[in-house]
Amino acid sequence: MIKSPLQIARESYAPKMPKALKGSVKIVEGKETESVADQADIKKMFPNTYGMPLLTFEPGEAAPTAARNVGVILSGGQAPGGHNVISGIYDGLKKLNPENKLYGFLGGPGGLVDNEYVELTADIVDHYRNTGGFDIIGSGRTKLEEEDQFEKALVNCKDLNITALVIIGGDDSNTNACVLAEYYKAKGAGVQVIGCPKTIDGDLKNEMVETSFGFDTACKVYSELIGNIQRDANSAKKYWHFIKLMGRSASHIGLECALQTQPNICIVSEEVEAKQMTLDDVVTYIAEIVAKRAEKGENFGTALIPEGLVEFIPAMKKLIAELNDLLAHNEDKVNALEGNKEKREFVADLLSADSKEVFVSLPNSIANQLMADRDPHGNVQVSLIETEKMLIDMVKAKLKVWKKEGKFKGKFKGQPHFFGYEGRCAAPSNFDADYCYALGNTASVLIADGKTGYMASVRNLTASSDEWIAGGVPVTMMMNMEKRHGEMKPVIQKALVRLDGAPFKKFVEKRDDWAENTKYVYPGPIQYFGPSEVCDITTKTLQYEQK
Ligand code: FBP
């Protein structure tokens, strides 16, 4: 590996740890838990892992543990800090017993089923400390959900004498981790399963998991870029920049970046849905701000667009749900058709009247993107839908009409951007480096104590890292029943932006001022060395949520 000077300097950064994880750990059991909803159904499906108590770590005496082998998997989209979770598990295991071994399954959950692995030794782990990416073992989106996969994985674990697995993933992967934990516990397989909350999207959070790792770094990278664009916009004064931001469903990333950079517009999908806005309402809202700024001669601006917007516009949501069912049931027929035009016509005829009207009114490029392949979890791949371009075209068309009517006198030139992949593998901020290392260490303690069906949890994150509270939360506690592929399934409840939450309310207080006036903030790049108030700063979302 050829290392950059920053990578070399950063290798020796020692992540800051919560007090309870610095020495030996005592585990304190809290009260028994219930799932967030649908308790009876979840309890029935997870008889062995339901209702387990919350766990908190305190400094204490640790009993010596026998040597054991552990496996780790990185699942789903990359998120800054994954390598530190692994180094945290590795160091935690070695601290418990130097004979402990860590195996990394390659390419995500698929590696566990296909028995592709590498033993993670100090020689390997040391090169990846405090670096971004998941390239130490790779990641993948294979869904671990079939009994056949669980059995194959068990054979592979037995071969390597692995008695515990750590699955580092988002809500879907942790749901599957819990199903696997239940399955192994039910059959007395002797393999524990522990989850770790990962995703830049920030939508795996609840009372016990304050944020998923990677959100902090990704938002800081995007905010730096947005700030740079805003400075360019304010210098040249000739473009409106439409910036789509990653985050498959929730708008946490967009909202956080808005709080950091104060753009002229930030659309929040959850608000669009709550207000039952149509696509035309969204376009009108944007066009009105463009027109208002133009009256002052400000023919420039920035608009942040969440990646998942199309799925939150009620009519589009209905259309996408129908498309999901319809494409699942007619996959072969659709694939057999030659061109996109034929596919669109075939699909349009199978839709309800309302959805057909919406579908045929969409630009062809967007309709084609909506028909494209789902990911293995059945989700539309919203990062492939060019919403930012669609909105530029639609705003332009509306302003053209308003110009004729004398309602718009300015100029409008749109520049589309999509910030997604460039934020997912950045070198983790101090926050993510520390948080992930603590999560990894926490996982190793849960393993040593024989726990299964738990997610590593590190809380109190706006306090100094010394005061962070580490422990474990039963995954079943986060579950509810949701419809997936036409069937009700137990899944971890996705945390969307709460319109009654402090971050959104803060944004609403300011957004009209930011829309009309130019109040940009330029956050600059993530700082790894320097004053703590710059280097260790947390997201505004966490700051406002924990006030
Ligand atoms: P995870 O939920 O797996 O962390 O993935 C998040 C994400 O970055 C989304 O924001 C985005 O929609 C998606 O991954 C893109 O997926 P892919 O890497 O498969 O293109």
Automatic annotation (TrEMBL):
NCBIfam families: PFKA_PPi, PRK07085.1. It comes from the Bacteria. It catalyses: beta-D-fructose 6-phosphate + diphosphate = beta-D-fructose 1,6-bisphosphate + phosphate + H(+). Keywords: Cytoplasm, Glycolysis, Kinase, Magnesium, Metal-binding, Transferase. The gene is pfp. Its EC number is 2.7.1.90. Belongs to the phosphofructokinase type A (PFKA) family. PPi-dependent PFK group II subfamily. Clade 'Long' sub-subfamily. It is an enzyme of class 2 (transferase). GO terms for molecular function: diphosphate-fructose-6-phosphate 1-phosphotransferase activity. Homodimer. This is Pyrophosphate--fructose 6-phosphate 1-phosphotransferase. The record marks D172 as: Important for catalytic activity and substrate specificity. InterPro entries: ATP_PFK, PfpB_PPi_PFK, Phosphofructokinase_dom, PKF_sf. It is found in: Cytoplasm. Residues 69-310 form the Phosphofructokinase domain. Its cofactor is Mg(2+).
